[in-house]
Design brief:
D-Maltodextrin-Binding Protein, domain 2; five-stranded mixed β-sheet; seven-stranded mixed β-sheet; 15 helices; 12 strands
Length: 341
């Protein structure tokens, strides 16, 4: 990994610290909960980072609605983040105990910055988009393309470049946060972007004729894009009770979501104070599994295969120096052996 790349990644995480502190101070959402009876054990507070979309918040919403937090003996304090690297930055500063991240941020667990406690879903939400009139990625050569660095959108851009025989040097690549990309694209300040739903829906409001050049589905045979819940590196071993309690409620919420899609969409919309139709659109680009299926995928090494493929791409992009055994950052046995509440 080159020194410039390394400095860039460190700088990105350092610059996120101020945003993390602001979110922690201003964006926290406390779900107080209570013990079931006067003699019940006092619930343990857990600070939970989430992203304000269907994938990033559905299991939180379901756990609130169905009382899974109380059943697991936990009391959540919610903090919103705009992307995974910021959430992992917050883990490192103890602003959160566990957080949701998309696949693009998994280079951080792979490099020892966090560990996976549970797989959430597999995403098909990412897209490479362009202004009307551009029909291929090559049409954007020499033009401004905004990339949210270290995200799943960034991963998709890397795959698209390789498929079309192009390099980042062929474009005027601009590192930009996702909300800023939406505004810049809608106002025609950039020509293309790597982004995901539901943010693309927002971009379409300003530019309804935008062109989708690539999606995750175009590379499903090469790379799977799992979203996960992560904690600080080594946290599961140090605090196994917290880890198993969290995994147990995630499994319960996951199975509820699988069996009750419409109710989950409604609960998530209420949780985020957004429209149900927006949540339904986001839900349509998520591939879900039952907890039993995730147990099997974890135990048989399929999730490790996903993580290895991601690591190969992260290494090629100079985000990590080498591919490591996924077991160093995903304890599949702990996940598979933990029952739902």
């Amino acid at each position: 990994m080159s020194a410039s790349i390394s400095r860039r990644n460190v700088l990105q995480l350092s610059m996120g610290a101020a945003a993390v502190s602001l979110l922690a101070a201003c964006g926290a959402k406390d779900n107080s909960g209570s013990a079931d009876s006067p003699g019940a054990k006092e619930p343990v507070e857990i600070k939970v980072g989430y992203i304000a979309d269907y994938n990033g918040a559905a299991l939180m919403a379901v756990s609130d609605q169905e009382g899974f937090w109380a059943k697991a003996g936990l009391k959540p304090k919610y903090l919103p983040f705009t992307n995974g690297p910021l959430a992992i930055q917050a883990l490192g500063t103890n602003n959160v105990d566990v957080a949701y991240i998309g696949s693009g941020a998994l280079w951080l667990p792979a490099s020892g910055k966090a560990e996976i406690w549970a797989v959430n879903s597999v995403s098909n939400a990412d897209r490479i988009i362009a202004q009307p009139g551009n029909k291929t990625l090559a049409d954007l050569k020499g033009k401004k393309v905004a990339i949210p660095t270290g995200t799943s959108g960034d991963q998709l851009f890397t795959l698209a470049l390789k498929k079309d025989g192009l390099s980042r040097e062929d474009f005027d690549v601009i590192a930009m946060e996702p909300p800023a990309i939406v505004a810049a694209f809608a106002s025609d300040q950039i020509d293309g972007a790597a982004l995901w739903y539901p943010l693309i829906d927002s971009a379409k409001k300003g530019q309804p004729d935008l062109v989708e050049l690539y999606s995750n589905e175009d590379f499903i045979d090469q790379l799977t894009f799992p979203s996960t819940f992560v904690a600080g590196a080594g946290r599961g071993a140090k605090d196994k009770e917290l880890a198993t309690s969290f995994i147990s409620l995630i499994k319960a919420a996951n199975d509820y979501r699988y069996d009750n899609q419409d109710k989950t969409i409604a609960a998530t919309a209420k949780f985020l104070k957004l429209k149900e139709e927006d949540m339904a659109a986001q839900a349509s680009v998520a591939k879900l599994f039952t907890s039993a299926e995730l147990d099997e995928l974890s135990s048989k090494g399929t999730v490790d295969t996903w993580l290895n493929a991601l690591q190969e791409q992260f290494k090629a992009a100079d985000k990590i120096p080498e591919v490591v055994d996924p077991k160093t950052f995903y304890n599949s046995e702990l996940y598979a052996s933990t029952p739902a509440v």
